[in-house]
């Protein structure tokens, strides 16, 4: 069994960039493999709250770190044309020396699309657009001159030079739990399937559905790494546990956060749960933490949890 890989997801709800860069450098120093952002035009549900745009921020964070991998869970396909996005991703992979994580999804919030005049549409249409975009981008990553004539995108003889540093390509993360639209795209295009917070409780059934979809198209499901996204809140000891649990429930009590399947507990409790995840075939865990708690949480994880995990 391979050791779990750990990432940290810090929604960039900050009024200035330097504190976020310091968090990324803390993640790098404390042994986290990757650092994740959200991709929204403003803070979901809090439009007056300061937030930074994902792609610009990821570029700056990669420039300000040396080993950390950076990406968004996930980029919204509707915000950028796939040829433009393919060129942006390739360029950033080159500039960062191969440290880009490439997550892409069909979009999650209708309101920001409608307010911005961007295409939305029903789930089936968004999934179809996403599939076409992935077809274009994977071709660009492969170094081919790309032509595509689809329902939503038509491109002709597109070069992509230089190609990405990572081979065969920057890892493509597709997140979601929808068996009708998402899992077929995961089976066809993803290097990593990210199970979001709301899908954690249904992990076993979804895994079976993904494996069946892979069998249908002739792909070995073992070629798809599995990550999941979950809340992290650490209590230093049993005495502090009730307060940490209560705070996590206040901030992340909504069903979509899947708190009961996350990581809220003492270091010993977290070690046990992470061992369970590894036994379930999870390759990586991406911990979601608010910017205010992120630094202290990463330090505590690095000193009290990580050393107790199997090497």
Notable traits:
single chain; alpha/beta; 17% strand; globular
Report what the structure shows.
The protein is of the alpha/beta class and 311 residues long. It has ten helices and twelve strands. The strands form two sheets. Strands 1, 2, 3, 4, 5, 8, 9, 10, 11 and 12 form a ten-stranded parallel sheet that branches. Strand 6 and strand 7 form a beta hairpin. The longest helix is centred in the middle third of the chain and has 19 residues. It is globular. The model has no long low-confidence stretch (mean pLDDT 95).
At a glance:
The chain is an alpha/beta fold and 311 residues long. It has ten helices and twelve strands.
Quaternary structure classification: single chain
Tally of DSSP helical segments: 10
In whole angstroms, how far apart are the ends?
A: 10 Å
Shape: globular
- Using only C-alpha atoms, the radius of gyration works out to 19 Å
Give helix and strand order, one letter per element, not per position.
EHEHEEHEHHEEEHEHEHEHEH
Q: Strand portion, in percent?
A: 15-25%
Structural class: alpha/beta
Helical fraction equals 40-55%
